[in-house]
Amino acid sequence: MSAEIPESLRDLSWELPRNFLGLEGDAATWQNAGVVILPIPYEASVSYQGGTKLGPDAIIQASRFIELYDQELDDEPGPRVGVCTLPALHLTSAGPEAAIGELREAMDAILAEAGDRLVIGLGGEHSITSAPVLAHADRLGEGRRLTILQFDAHGDLRLEYEGSRFSHAAVMAQCIDRADLVQVGIRAITSEERALIREREGSITTIFAEEMWSDEAWIDRAFAALGDDVFITFDVDYFDPSLMPATGTPEPGGPPWYPTLKLLRRVFEEKNVVGVDVVELAPIGGNAAPDFVVAKLVYKMIGYHSLRGAVHGTRSTEEGPR
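Below the sequence we write its predicted structure tokens.
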């Protein structure tokens, strides 16, 4: 319960705290957290349906009603690891370039303070991804190259869209000179993007959605293309609209839930996941199911992250919050 509540009143039937998972006390503090949630309700260049600025709050609200016990892991990773939810980061309205530049400065500051904590950004539109990707690429140092693992329906490899290099449709093009790219679930690209993928074969690996239905060989192919250090960006339109209708540009034919989790678990267990963002949820009034799907996805990644026994400072997340 919030520190503003007098001790004598803390046992009353207050609502859950507006933190991710509804965590409270030591499990939700910066000092004790192994994971940091950063809401980024930025929306400027959506193509079809709007509403992504409402995504972070909807994810956090839905997360408060997720069961903390994960039967796959036989664990309650959230309270054990500790999850600190930061206030929403509101970016300037002076234009996309200025906004992404402001986000980059904020990411540099947050990552410097976070140490080995895993920072998970909640968007907002996909254009926000270039800032954490480039911040992490700079932090890796000489001789190490970041790989982006992009779950998405769209390539996002346009050089610009509607006159802006900082559009959500161009975000991966902003990153590919500084990081390798593994794309999964793609089923909507331009001919120019397809040509770029062929030209960059070796540094861009694209697994199209139609390749993912006959068997799970795509999981091995995606994993084999990853380097040691991975940033995961998850555009929720990756999923089929039957599971995820609440997104700006839904595309039919998206991959299902459990094979996706299988890849995610393997990546967290065997690679160094330096950061994560989850973007493009556009909540639908009266239908909270998609919000819950995304909140559950974020919690699954927190659980998988905890399997590596990640540490920040001198405290192992296996010790739990103090």
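The mean pLDDT is 90.
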